[in-house]
Amino acid sequence: MTTNDSLTYMPRPGMWNWRNLAFRGALVLLTTTLLMLDDWIQQWFTSSNQADFELNYFAALCAFNLGLWLSGSRVFVSCILALLAGMELVQLSHISYAGRPLDPVVLASLFSEFHDVQQVALAEFGDHAHVLFAVLAPYLTAWWLFMACMQSDVRRWQRTLGLLLVAAGLLSKPYRATYRDLNAFLPGPTRSGLHNSLNTFSFFLVHNVLRDGAHAAPAPGAAPPAVSPVASDTRHVWLFVADSLRSEHLGIMGYERDTTPRLARRMEEGLIARHGVAAAVSTAASMPLILNAVREPGQLGQIRGLSTNLFKFAKEAGFKTYWISSQESKLLNDVGSRYVDVSITREDEPQRFLNQGDETLLSLLKEQKWPEKTFVVVLLRSVHAPYEANYQHARDRFARWPDGGDLPREVRMRNAYDNSVLYLDALLDRMLDEFDKLPGQRHLAITGDHGQLLGARGLWGHNVLEPEVADVPVLAWSRDAPPSASAPMAQQRWISHFEMSRWLAGLLGRDIQSPSAIEGVHYVQGKNLYGANTFREVHEGVALEFSDVVPVGHSLPVRPYDPVRSVVAR
């Protein structure tokens, strides 16, 4: 109403009129745009963010923002924006580093491998500092608008509607995660970062927090392995596993750079070097698969039952067993720790590993008083990111290729990785000297737990089912032994982790037969070994050929071998 003394019309707060609706609508559109702006800002700095505008998602986000405005609570809105900004900082940081959106499996590793993530983040902060600007600039602007223009005395029905809209936006994804599998929540490269974040964090919340992990499905058609005793005169069986070691960056495997001069000399003395196929894409997944000689995906019963465990076989054959690792003790999970006599990890010697890095492993090997028969597993981090930190104490000897911050990231990272391989080559050479001092028939295998992406197709790191991550070397070194002992390794063109483990088991006096094995067919699994995992089938031919990514539980084999389609040439 108006009176004779009134010259203007002032609507009550929350009252419906065209002027007020237009203003509030403009604010909704503006804050919605701001919540999508982080992707567009990041695209100025990197092509790895491929987010496109999606009208349906924009409309849904408008409804969400309308709910924030109608809530009438500055505290509530501040909490919601802080939550979304936190998810986006994690999401865009992962895109910047790895070159791909964050998925629920990798998100779980950010917590389980927090120390490694923190170390890499600090070392490479300069390359990814733009993420802070990309996220904080639009989110702080949106927060300022809400604080400055929000009406706190909205009507009850408006507040109720607002809270319902926000709840629908935040809770619909977690509810959907209670009845849909991982495939429905995998990120899309062209989706908005916030869209991917809502999917990823929702699945993680339901399956990793509320349910304490999704259960893996067994692989149909995979019969349990058969174990039988075999004669063996071996006195020492050792296994060296180098984190993130990729065979295509080893000089002995045909790499253009001479990154392995000392291992090349060892080949003249009988070292066997073959391209391999990793069991999985992360350390935590690969080690249980290697040490339990698992071939097919989804065989958690075989892992947890330890029916084919190498430590168990070693103890039964009278070997003293050792686990010596520059990694954390949590990697002892499901590798047969009950059969390990001597366990030394980074937690046991924190200061030595901090000061000497992987050279601590060499010192520990020298300090042992080896009994007549030994089974030893050694885990190294010499080529784990940040690569330059591994050889920083000896740059004068191992910084052969420039790794300065003025170089493009692709060049700097490749050079630093190759320098770290050169450092590993020198360390392995000295460790082989220690191994060669042992008396009697002895055998040693060297491999990587998984490979590493170094910028191919804009991808970095591992934890993803790409051919480069499955690419590992498998080296075999036999001393004072008949040629027949190393023949299973020498006669192969490619050696899978399962085949390597089967060779080691034979040296320990046990033969493992997989009834489901198909000649020339291997499997590489995702990192979520105990949850909603995925895998790829790998076929040998003129090249290694990879199937599409499929969930564990898919019928085996995935598809017939097609020699025309090849992915990785050797």
Task: Output the number of helix runs.
Answer: 21
User: What is the rounded Rg?
Assistant: 28 Å
Residues in helices, as a percent range: 40-55%
Largest sheet: 8 strands, mixed
Low-pLDDT residue spans = 1-16, 561-570
CA distance, first residue to last residue? 84 Å
Q: Structural class of the helix and strand makeup?
A: alpha/beta
Strand order of the largest sheet: 5-4-6-2-7-10-3-11
pLDDT averaged residue by residue: 88
- Quick one: how many beta strands? 17
What's the overall geometry? Answer: elongated
Beta-strand content bin: 5-15%
Question: Quick recap of the structure?
Answer:
Helices cover 45% and strands 14% of the residues.
Secondary structure layout:
Elements: H1 18-42, H2 55-71, H3 74-98, H4 104-112, H5 114-123, H6 125-128, H7 130-149, H8 156-177, H9 193-210, E1 226-229, E2 236-242, H10 261-267, E3 272-277, H11 283-291, H12 300-305, H13 310-316, E4 320-325, E5 342-344, H14 350-356, H15 359-367, E6 374-380, H16 387-390, H17 395-398, H18 409-436, E7 442-448, E8 453-454, E9 460-461, H19 467-470, E10 471-479, H20 483-490, E11 494-496, H21 497-507, E12 510-513, E13 521-525, E14 534-540, E15 543-546, E16 550-551, E17 568-569
Helix pairs in contact: 1-2, 1-7, 2-8, 3-7, 3-9, 4-9, 8-9, 10-18, 15-18, 20-21
